[in-house]
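Researcher: Re-running this chain for the archive, since the previous output was lost when a drive failed. Same request as before.
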Amino acid sequence: MNRILLVEDDSQIVRVLTEFLTGEGFEVTSVPGKMQAERCIVRGEYELCLLDVTLSNGSGFEVCEIAVAAGIPVIFLTASGDETSAVRGLDMGAEDYISKPFRPRELLSRIRRVIRRNAPDGKNAEILLPCGVSVQPESGIVRKNGTEITMTALEYRLLSVFLQNRGKILSREQLLFDIWDVGGDVVNDNTLTVYIKRLREKIEDEPQDPKIILTARGLGYRIP
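Model: Regenerated structure tokens:
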């Protein structure tokens, strides 16, 4: 049974999430603040930490540092539209974020994806792609012909979605759903086109004739 540490000081969210995740087969330990979270991280073994950015006792970013140092993957729970906090969390080593109010099923999907990605048998494996591109999921480092590629958090997140679904055709709707939060924000579909173009420019030998991010006309995109 996967164990989740929920660090959240909103009792209503704690109650709903604990009930939902327990029903999905997870063991949930909930604490309201930094000090309690630190004690849990030191004493217990968790596959994931669900972490609110704003806590009445301490900062979610402080807890994130402790969890990441302990090798526990983190998903941040952020206020709707708080992109600054989300990006800061990702830069600190968090695996993902989701904005409140969130859909429980979407959160469940993200939780399972992060746990699967950090499983001992696959956590450290380097992923090799065409055009001399390699990805190290644990560190988030992407290289092309041995040289590290600088990526924004959103570019890397887009690449990660492709890697998690390697070989599968992903529709534009699926990509938008996985990349952006669903807290009510409206995202222009053209934005996805822009980010795919930017990503291709960074990892492809010839962006106009891609070998990594392939277009399945009328269906979406995939990587081989």
